[in-house]
Task: structure prediction
Amino acid sequence: MALIKSISGIRGTIGGRPGENLTPLDIVKFTAAFGTIISGQKPAKVVIGRDGRISGGMVRDLVVSTLTGLGIDVIDLGLSTTPTVEIAVKMEKADGGIILTASHNPKEWNALKLLNKDGEFISAETGAKVLELAAADDYNFSAVEKLGTVSQNEEYLQKHIDAILAYPLVNAELVAKKNLKVVVDAVNSTGAIYVPALLKALGVENVILLNGEVTGRFAHNPEPLPEHLSQLSNEVVKQKADLGIAVDPDVDRLAFVCEDGSMFGEEYTLVAVADYILTHRKGNTVSNMSSTKALKEITLKHGGEYFPSAVGEVNVVNKMKEQEAVIGGEGNGGIIVPDFHYGRDALIGIALFLTHLAGHKNGLRSLRSHYPDYFISKNKIELEKGIDVQSIFEKIRKKYQRNPVNTDDGLKIEFDNDWVHLRTSNTEPIIRIYAESDFESKANNIATRLMQDIKEFA
Result:
């Protein structure tokens, strides 16, 4: 059981004791802190939406009651996606947004993701104020005559799809001509509603939906990693489909399966979309420093410049703005298209990816062969309470002091053409260990070596 308080929101396991897990008291406290900060002295409006989690209804009721108790008007999108809520905040000219989702975490988790008036994750400064106010329990609720209102809005599924179809580099006519057969793994959440609707709008008529009941009882671990997508892979082969699509519960991460059942690679979702974007628009790219170096190579090939950022969507977005990137995101399958909106969006990612594929003569496996074959070994070590991570990282840094080291976000060490990145997670009580090389065995060996270092210095 866990409760993680960060500058981007609050995330935890449902049940247990307040302050140690995500209980009703914690949900009210952090909602009140956020609502107090964004409303100030004026009437405010907040957009909310949730994924399909079992606890979603309960969390929604607590959030709505707290916000209206502060005198804030709430626009509730109901079952929605993270990028849809982000878009709605701007369209509704709201003062902020709250997405009720723990993203890729298992079913016992939920979270409050906090958005500013631009539909982007709140800044570190605002996040620190939320944490400070929540700790102080200093709120001022409204009198009965000034309570906020609640309105339901079910129009944003179509509004999101319409905006995607209107995006200049999305070509629905070209996609429709490809006559694709697609298998979708919606992992029992809102992707089951949004992804088939988008595919239909793109002219994809033959869609097989797996795990399509929105129950929140995820049929498998909801993180769209190869080890969790065997059902999708098998079904693509069985159905003789052109490809498979996997999203996470809040539909901001995206992965593809090739027609032979092999993984396109979550790291290469961004690489392929960037290749397509850069073919039509020259410019710079950004990804976090735990992402494949293939994006840098593709960017340089198109005459642009690549910039790494610290891990975390808000960090990627800030770097994209700073460097005026035309495309960016994260190697976990997160696509950020800046002139669409500054947020990871699997739906615009699907539309751009399928447009790219439709312009390719052969199938998805053939398209994948156009990109480098690097391997990232992704590992994690669970943290015990009270462990001094910075002390461990400092000892490791000294051990590898002859290698190029970056300490902007945890510890990234370069070994000739390979690298390893160690950092604490923003969403789980773990240390992540990512290593990339041109051979899978080399990447695994590098990661194993650093995991042994962590254990030795712990």
